Amino acid sequence: MSELFRAGVIIVISSFTCLLLFGCGQPGGQVMRVGRAIGIDKKNIEEYKRLHADTWEGVLKMINKANIRNYSIYLGEVEKDKYYLFSYFDYIGDNYEEDMKKVAADEETQKWLKLTDPLQKPLPTRGEGEWWAQWEEVFHFEGSPSDNKPKRYSSIIGLSNRKEDIIAYKQFHAAVWPGVLATIEKANIRNYSIYLGELEKGAYLMFSYFEYVGDDFEADMAAIGRDEVTKIWWSYMEPLQIPLPTRKDGEWWASMEEVFHTD
Fold first, then answer.
1. Going by C-beta distance under 8 Å and a sequence separation of 6 or more, which residues neighbour residue 140?
2. What are phi and psi of 237, to 5 degrees?
3. What pLDDT is recorded for position 23?
4. Model's pTM, two decimal places?
5. What's the confidence (pLDDT) of residue 30?
6. 3-state secondary structure (DSSP) of residue 258
7. Which residue segments constitute the domains of the chain, with CATH numbers given?
8. Which residue from 122, 135, 175, 216 has the highest number of Cβ atoms inside 10 Å of its Cβ?
């Protein structure tokens, strides 16, 4: 899991061009979680934010029609003046590929992409046919349902490019200790995922997304930092991770700014 705290200190604070023609359907009404990444030059950030602060109604309707929900885009600075966008959304339909084809064929969306695509820089490591690079989900914790309106958080950190470290990180997160999961649950965190990808060949990065449904974020995060099992877990995770030089004081994972969201 993404380390929310280190030694009791909060470390996680505070375009729609990713819908390409590939993927798979979700039988039985299951939710498909999608995490993706793309670059953006510093000079294009202001215009990108301006567009997404007032996303066209037709584009938003198409997103909804395509069975996409809970769609967020975050802006992260990996190195000084080196920026990337990271997106997360839930797909609730039963034929992802067909829904994405409908999005690509939509005239309003095509006009929108003509404005947003030139602002972005696809990753050299993206898969064939991709614009945004789809990343691998290496951890997910569903948590308990809640009637409270969630607050969303996302952050980034590097990962060692040693093969044995990558395998170890994935294996740990395929079977996270029950005590660690129980502490996350108690801290009112739900829908928590971590995605792994390469910005460039051999440059591994992870981004995390979670929703907080409690009433006192700082108190709940401090409680995670005091948990003895979690602290032992972190002692295994931290040597595998590479904190970014752009992280704020007190952060281990670098927090990101949300620049778009639609329910």
1. 33, 192, 193, 194
2. -80, -40
3. 37
4. 0.89
5. 82
6. strand
7. 5-262 (3.30.70)
8. 135
List alpha helices for 54-129, DSSP H. Answer: 57-65, 96-105, 107-116
User: Phi/psi of residue 40, each to 5°?
Assistant: -155, 135
Helical residues (DSSP H) of 91-147, grouped into ranges: 96-105, 107-116
Q: How far is CA 107 from the centre of its chain?
A: 28
Amino acid, res. 239 = P
**Cα distance between residue 141 and residue 189, in whole Å:** 9
The structure tokens listed for 87 are 């997106």
Query: Which residues of the chain have a pLDDT value below 50?
Result: 3-28
For residue 9, give the DSSP letter: E
| Residues constituting the chain | 263
**Cα–Cα distance, 154 to 104 (Å, whole number):** 27
Q: Is 164 helix (H, G, I), strand (E, B) or coil?
A: helix
Q: Give the H or E element holding residue 49.
A: helix 45-53
Neighbours of 263 (CB within 10 A): 8
Q: State which amino acid sits at residue 114.
A: K
Whether the CB-CB separation of 246 and 80 falls below 8 Å is answered with: yes
| Residue 118 CB coordination number (10 Å) | 10
DSSP line for 130-172? -SSEEPEEEEEE-----SSPPEEEEEEEEE---HHHHHHHHHH
Residue-wise pLDDT tens digits, 10-35: 333 333 333 332 334 444 458 999 99
User: To which residue do tokens 């404005």 refer?
Assistant: 115
Digit-coded pLDDT (tens) for 177-228:
999 999 999 999 999 999 999 999 999 999 999 999 999 999 999 999 999 9
